[in-house]
Description:
Elements: E1 2-6, E2 18-22, H1 37-48, E3 59-63, E4 72-77, H2 86-102, E5 107-111, H3 119-137, E6 156-160, H4 164-192, H5 200-211, E7 217-222, H6 224-230, H7 233-239, E8 247-254, E9 263-267, E10 269-273, H8 293-308, E11 313-323, E12 334-337, E13 343-346, H9 353-364, E14 371-376, H10 380-386, E15 391-395, H11 398-410, E16 415-417, H12 422-425, E17 435-436, H13 444-453, E18 461-465, E19 471-472, E20 477-478, H14 483-493
Helix pairs in contact: 2-3, 3-4, 4-8, 7-9, 8-14, 9-13, 11-14
The structure holds ligand BES, manganese (II) ion (MN) and zinc ion.
Amino acid sequence: MRYLSKTTAADKLATQCLILGVFEGRQAGESLNSLSTDTLTALKSVLKKRDLNGKCGQTLMLYDVPGIRAERVLLVGLGKKKNLSPKSLASAMEKAITQLNDGATRDCAFLLPPEFADKSEIYAATRDTVLAAEAQLYLFDQCKSQKDHPLHPLNKMTLISGSRAGASTVKKALSHAQAIAGGMTLAKNLANLPGNICTPSYLANQAKKLGTGNAKLKVSALGEKQMEKLGMGALLSVSKGSREPAKLIVMEYRGASASSRPVVLVGKGLTFDAGGISIKPSANMDEMKYDMCGGASVIGTLKACAELELPMNVVGIVPSSENLPDGAANKPGDIVTSMAGLTIEILNTDAEGRLILCDALTYAERFKPAAVVDVATLTGACVVALGHHTTGLLANDDKLADELLRAGDAINDPCWRLPMNDDYNRQLDSNFADMANIGGKGAGTITAACFLGRFTEKYKWAHLDIAGTAWKSGDKGATGRPVPMLMQLLLARCKLAE
Ligand code: BES
Ligand code: MN
Ligand code: ZN
């Protein structure tokens, strides 16, 4: 969808549909004050009829409203006035957008509630409205032969603000939000594709496409021979059981001088996780096509960075492989040597994410990172701990952890920190190698992070376990998380977020 920022008076704007907010208890709110008396009288008489109470997300479509250029007016309930927030506004707008997309309108205008007075509120309200709209309009039908598109898809939205200053904040928020939404859409598309299409090579080629024609974004992918030379024995051991060659995708975005240390994002790109010889139960195993969501979110985030031309350096690393049972696959008890030289006893071949990530995390050292954040659908235990609303966060640096907590809260993509210490770390002790790849009973998310922590001692590091937040079970598909959190972190580091 296209978005515009304007200060035109709401009644003078030529649009197919003007969206106006109404608070619970049929309270008009300040938006209506900018309309002519004719319009106001008409709207007040409609409200008196009580079809719309103003509960968050309720809608009422009106035609032939006097004194206004818009062909229609869509009243949208914004909930209780005292509870108005960018988040509540966005959830109300979701409903409005869906209704308009299914109807005959292609363009609409939305009068931002003047109750949002300061810059940061206007910024967040605009951004969250766009993210909500793009989430509603998202459609994944790449694999359907018959496309079922809406007859008159909504394709333009004008956001009206009361002042020039407001309009320029809206403009900035629009550009940020559109880039974030674009990154999320790419992440969702890659994730929703099945494992037979979205293979490690496919993922690498899609990442490379982003680099073509963009001087600031360099994308390459290491093949198995190159990884062998680097000694990536842990990563390659996972891919041994698969006929698809593994890839290490490397995306380098240069938005600042070469001497400026990059933020390195590492994403698990496991394109299908059957568990290997420690095979998973067959129920819902199809959902393990989403085991590359961390990688997809890193690719999506780099796309957004490039689009916004962020004034910083960002590197994305995506180790990508399948995990399948096969005669050549890892067996329980096998011992492999990682790129860092540490040996790992593989007691469960289904704990493969950490095996591909540990070599990618060692590879990250060469970029002299300011910070490293890895993103992975790493443990079922994280879903038990935090459910589907909150991403797991573990870190070896308190400041970096706080930055991520704040970024997630600011953009409605929250995470919650879990502890890491030596007691948990000892759960990984092995009789036969430097460590085992599983930590036994209890604290599965923490011991997985402790495993990664043994490979990240040389830099500031945080780990995001997105096992519960990367997709919605059933036919709902990938969420695009945590692209918003990562982008908010990077925008804040560039001092660009409001
Ligand atoms: N990709 C899975 C984790 C996962 C499971 C994510 C379910 C989302 C939903 C990971 O590779 C895995 O299999 N982890 C094991 C680790 C265990 C063997 C220590 C798990 O969580 O069961
Ligand atoms: Mn697994
Ligand atoms: Zn996995």
